[in-house]
Amino acid sequence: MAVKILIVTGDAAESLEVLYPYQRLREEGYEVHIAAPAVRKLRFVVHDFEEGFDTYTEKPGYTWPADVAFADVVTEEYAAVVVPGGRAPEYLRNDPEVRRILAAFTGSDKPVAQICHGPLITAASGGLAGRRVTAYPALELDMKAAGAQYEDSEAVVDGTLVSARAWPDHSAWMREFLKVLRAKAPLA
User: Fold this and answer.
1) Which of 68, 98, 102, 132 has a CA that sits 20 to 30 A from residue 40's CA?
2) pLDDT at 56 > cutoff 90
3) What's the family (predicted)?
């Protein structure tokens, strides 16, 4: 039986922050499902850093189908969850179903990988209090307000919670997440 990993996302998620872990985890041998508010084609974005801008810029990105709606996710079927960033977490954190999903993972000490703005969802589910995290640097105050200790580092590991700032940190983020995942949910 395959070990399943869940990615929770929606429209305006950062393309690389969804597709890099999706492909990397599949390459490793895990079965990966993308959960969204509804089963349909999602529209991702590309965030880039350009000289002369105070923050990132946003351009249209890839489209990708969701496999399962948040309301239909049975968390017990999944060994871990990945929470990408982009703008999607800003509205997804208001969805009670996505908060249910994250609370189930953080409450059972299952591996959680979060990046960029993804920790906004984990924070909304109550899963960051007392934890060490990183996130997109502009979210430092949000992380502290959620009761977390913010660290400006490419990857922060706190037990089964692995976080990163943004897509330039992918290699360190997935390297650390895979260490946790292999220990908690090894492949047969």
Assistant:
1) 102
2) no
3) Belongs to the peptidase C56 family.
Residues with Cβ within 8 Å of residue 55, at least 6 apart in sequence: 138
Give me the residue spans of the domains in the chain: 4-184
Handedness of CA 58, 63, 66, 69 (dihedral sign): positive
**Candidate list 33, 47, 116, 170, residue with the active-site label:** 116
Superfamily of domain 4-184: Class I glutamine amidotransferase (GATase) domain (3.40.50.880)
Q: What is the pLDDT of residues 62-106, one digit of tens each?
A: 999 999 999 999 999 999 999 999 999 999 999 999 999 999 999
Q: What are phi and psi of 2, to 5 degrees?
A: -70, 145
Chain-wide mean pLDDT for the chain? 97
Q: Any bridge partners for residue 157, and if so which?
A: 162
H and E: helices and strands count for the chain: 6, 11
Active-site residue identified among 33, 47, 117, 170: 117
Q: Is 8:98 a contact under the CB 8 Å cutoff?
A: yes
State yes or no: is 116 an active-site residue. yes
Query: Which runs of E-coded beta strand occur in 74-160?
Result: 80-83, 112-115, 132-133, 149-150, 156-158
